[in-house]
Amino acid sequence: MIGSLFVTGPAGTGKSTFCAAYKDWLISNGYDAAIVNLDPGSEYIPYEAEIDIRETISLSQIMSEYNLGPNGAQIVAADLLLENTEPVTKVLRELEDYYVIFDTPGQIELFSFRPGSPMLVDRLSSGKAMIAFIADAVLSASPSGFISQKMLFGSVLSRFYKPMLFVLNKLDLITDDDLEAVMKWEDSPDLLRDALMDEKQEMVKDYFSAVLNAFKESQMVNKIFPVSAKDMYGFEDIYSEMSLFFTGGSDTDTMYRDD
Ligand SMILES: Nc1nc2c(ncn2[C@@H]2O[C@H](COP(=O)(O)OP(=O)(O)O)[C@@H](O)[C@H]2O)c(=O)[nH]1
Ligand SMILES: [Mg+2]
User: pLDDT (tens digit, 9 = 90+) per residue, 135-167?
Assistant: First the structure.
């Protein structure tokens, strides 16, 4: 593979829809792309998967075999996958010129906060991985919601230490003014802190000031990628970032280059 993108984020932010739309975008722009579904619990996936973990790992079988509920079974499933990655890597080896998108379990903790996941990412990607953190634009349009997503982003980064993209999905559900406010908050911790104080007067100002300045100084979320997976909007920039990281931009069609 040229490189891979592991797609994570809170439940319902649109990870699977994003995977489907981004794959379609890549293919319609002339690139080879495939999706691997790593969510054994998904009932419906909105794409055709090159590899679907549900074919080898059955949650209902694990539930009855180990006498577990759905969450316990998800955890066993994650561990089983880590124990036996060969069937997946075997297929991936054939996809030489592909960008591979990994869809991860609906609930973020089942992927990002399992002890074995960083090793899983390294094994499946042969070290060639980026992570897309999918945030919900509606939640992120409020100061407290945006800060909560930034902190979660930082939390995922602390697990994987891979290049990460902060993807603001469901752009079609917020106004242009909302997006403009989010972009300004991203640029200025002071503006974001003031907006938060307007929203939640009783908050401890110093704590959030320190946290927001730390984000800014460390450049942890220094770029937001606004997309709508529903409307197929915003994928050029994501592709540019991936192409730049994995190939130094050499396979990037000039029409998609930022610089
Ligand atoms: N309006 C809108 N809805 C979206 C978008 N992306 C996903 N959704 C919807 O959000 C819901 C959850 O999406 P899904 O991809 O299953 O989320 P996941 O749990 O993160 O994989 C579904 O009803 C999707 O149709 C988007 O860009 N705009
Ligand atoms: Mg999903």
Answer: 999 999 999 999 999 999 999 999 999 999 999
> In the numeric block, which tokens belong to residue 92?
């991936």
Least confident range of 26-40, 42-56, 99-113, 238-252: 238-252
Query: Are the C-beta atoms of 106 and 10 separated by less than 8 Å?
Result: no
Q: Which helix (H) or strand (E) holds 183?
A: helix 176-187
- What is the pLDDT at residue 250? 67
Rg of the chain over CA atoms, in angstroms? 19
Ligand 1 pocket check for 15: Cβ under 6 Å = yes
Mean pLDDT of the region 28-42: 96
* Tokens found for residue 256: 């998609």
Fold (topology level) of 3-174+221-256: Rossmann fold (3.40.50)
Ligand 1 atom closest to residue 171's alpha carbon, by position in its atom list: 27
Q: Name beta bridge partners: 34.
A: 100
- Going from N- to C-terminal start, the domains of the chain cover 3-174+221-256
Q: Which two tokens stand for residue 259?
A: 């610089």
The pLDDT tens digits of the residues spanning 192-242 come to 999 998 988 777 778 888 888 888 888 777 789 999 999 999 999 999 999
Atom of ligand 1 nearest to the CA of 228: 27
Mutate to test the pocket of ligand 1, among 15, 17, 19, 173 (most ligand atoms within 8 A of CB): 17
Which ligand minimizes its atom distance to the CA of 132? 1
Mean pLDDT of the chain: 92
Sheet containing 32-37: give its strands across: 51-52, 32-37, 98-103, 3-8, 129-136, 164-169, 224-226
Pick the atom of ligand 1 nearest to 11's CA: 19
